[in-house]
Amino acid sequence: MADGFPSVSQRDRRPESGSSAPLTGAPMTDHAELPPPRSGGRLDPLQILFWISVTVGVAAAGIAITAGPSVGQAGAVLLVLLAAAGMVLFFWMSRGAGRKHGAFPERGAIAASALHSGNREFALIEALDEAALITDASLSPLVGNQAYLEIAHATGVLGDSDRPPMLSRLFGADPMLSAPMFRLSKAAQLGQARREELPATGALSGRHARYEACVGPMPGGYVLWRLREMGAASEQSGQAEEGRQLFLDDSPVGFFAARADGTIVYMNRSLRAVLGLGDDPSLLRVKDFVKEDASRLVRRDRRGFGPSRSRITLKGIDGHETQASVLSFWPADDVDGAARTLVFFSDAEAPETPAVVRTDMTNADGGVFANAPFGMAVLDGIDPASAAVLDSNAALMEMTQGRATPSAPFADLFDASEGPSALAHRLRQAMNDPIEITLATTPPTAVHVHFARSPEGRGIAYVLNVSQQRELETRLAQSEKMREIGELAAGVAHDFNNLLTVVMQTCSTLLRRHPVGDADYPMLREISDHAVTAKELSEMLRAYARQQTFAREVFDVGDFIGSKQELIRRIMGASIPYEIRHGRDLPFVKVDKTQLERVLINLATNARDAMTPAGSPMPRDGKLTVRTSVITAEAARGLGHNPIEDGKYTLIEVEDTGGGIKPEHAAKIFRPYHSTKEAGKGTGLGLATSYGIIKQSGGYIFFTSKLGVGTTFRIFLPEYIPTQEELDEISAKERALLKPATKDVAGRGKILFVEDQTAVRRSIARNLKECGYEVEEAENGEEALEVMSRNPGAYDIIISDVSMPIMTGPEMLQEADPAYIGNAKVLFLSGYAPESFSHMLEQYPVHYMSKPVTMEQLVGRVKEILATAA
């Protein structure tokens, strides 16, 4: 035939596999009989049942009609039998003979039935000595010749159908044939002819064999499919391939073929023996047995200069090294995408030929070029903007992601987003001074380029990767930027707190003059509430800037968290259960209780929001677990948390069963103003504040999260070993908790109030005087010392701001003569304070309150301090 298939001829009929009866075919004539239907000409049982039902139904109808109205149940019998006949008719039309002639014919069934009933136009397919199948235009199988049916029967896909299966079903067990079958089907649908040489498969005959499949259009919209085995051609090809392999294996020189990525395609016996390898080197790469830059052996030279020659060192699996010379080349047709390399084991180098180009620079420079830790390239000219690459080392190939191949324009290695002329100008600057430029890689890589001339008049480019250095510089600049932002935020918070103090103190005065029921009371209450909200925002800024003044206390974390159960319950609400699990033998910690409580509140609030479904007003289907335990730094590193200093820590875990944190948010979770919540439902300062508080307390905070499972935040607080005095103080505080809290803010005593802001000083002094205290004012630390020198020991309590011009509050305390202070207690007020002030709170018996404060808070604290002194 024209397409290469065997010519039509008479062939012997083979018996069907697994059948005792022979399969005899029709004589090879134009009127050859087609294979009978799979039903063997027997009636379908549903057809018999249908005709019996119809006969009985018609008889019952006749009886009912002739008997007249005197027959009582005849009508019911008639209806039942007619319904039965109708059901059988329905099944008959949808199955059985109905598939051919009914109202619901199977796709292609009518055409196939017509072929079997006397249409002999496709009888010639029996004359083909290969398997053949005819389908309609929609690829529904119609008829197959005897050879095709035998293959279908042998593969077990023939079944009980009257029609043969599609060709693709014959190879259903071999996924390697899916792609060729798809291409053949696509060509058949488009009315095109196509031939495919299928990969070797054992799906048909049980032994690996290759087949050729062909598809082509026929008149009338039909499609002819043919399949033949290529055993003879395959055997001839295999013999030729075996002869070539035998020749290469017996060659006295080594030979291997490798792809561009270094994967070995073939290696002859001589080279395997030198390396001590077995018969299957397919898992090797060139770099596994070549000591030098292995990529040079499989690098394609696009200049077409022929094979390249170089000296290499072979590494055996036993560690033995062998010197060798190699010739590497790519075949002209490049049928398999693999480079060929001849390996000469003798000390004598391979003979020089005009077509061989020396590219081995490792001998000339002692290996500096190939083994340099930075990129190097030899150019064919002294102008880096127009020169091409003659050779490059492994470092530059890796740096450029394989683009620095021979004959590649040197300028193409770099980013040209600013235009070719700008790039050329930048490269020419490297002839005088080193430049920083970006490689055209993904992602872009920052490099320094140095350019020099060789004695032969060629250009030599040195390329240093500085991307890590630039990343570190960027991080340092970002760190400095954030530190400056933190200082700015702390300064703004300080001044803002002074303003809030005036607002809150004045509002307290007006609320006393306009109590509940007054027309102005709601507006004053609203001002007071917003001032408290502004105070919370200010405290978040100070916490993020890590410039809060911490009043650190020594306490047990288990007792502290146990006392916050009611607070956590109010945050989570009634719909989310929570559990607190206390660890044993928890060490003491020394942190600010108020700040740690703020962290717990923030984490519990975030957990509640994470367990609240989108669009739902309240959380559900979740659980919060708070655990405490003892852990070492080594165990923390085992959980993947780094860096963390060596030592023993108290661990607080806050675990929720929410939706988890998405990977794109994980790296930004502690950044200020980064929020995963909807707009208007979060400030983005919560976790940034928590991070600042824990870090300023000397601890660490990490988290782990899994989408759809939940998130666990872990707080590591360093162990603190208290002194005996601190243990006694802890016991005294516990006893003091049993006393009822002071509610009456009225009191008596003499107060020295030091504050540089006039508005703040006047508002606080006015409220203190209204509560019954005698107040004397000072504008700064020096003035306060003068006041105390005139009245030494005359004050019951000294209230001072921390940050003031001329002399700060702590400096005033240190400069004051003890006689000036006498028995007076000291209370510091500040919006923020230097870090050294936190240490002063631990060294001196002073008290501290954070601005802004309301009148009730300040007067209540004053009365508490005076009561303790009494």
TrEMBL record:
4-aspartylphosphate PTM positions: D801
GO molecular function: phosphorelay sensor kinase activity
Record Gene3D superfamilies: 1.10.287.130, 3.40.50.2300, Histidine kinase-like ATPase, C-terminal domain
Region: Disordered, residue numbers: 1-38
Protein name, entry field: histidine kinase
PANTHER family assigned to the protein according to its UniProt record, in alphabetical order: SENSOR HISTIDINE KINASE, TWO-COMPONENT SENSOR PPRA
Catalytic activity: ATP + protein L-histidine = ADP + protein N-phospho-L-histidine
Source organism (scientific name): Terricaulis silvestris
Transmembrane segments: 48-68, 74-92
CDD domains: HisKA
Pfam families membership: HATPase_c, Response_reg
Annotated Histidine kinase domain residues: 491-721
Lineage top rank: taxon: Bacteria
Assigned keywords, A-Z: Membrane, Phosphoprotein, Transmembrane, Transmembrane helix
Enzyme class: transferase
Domain Response regulatory span(s) in chain numbering: 750-866
Annotated EC: 2.7.13.3
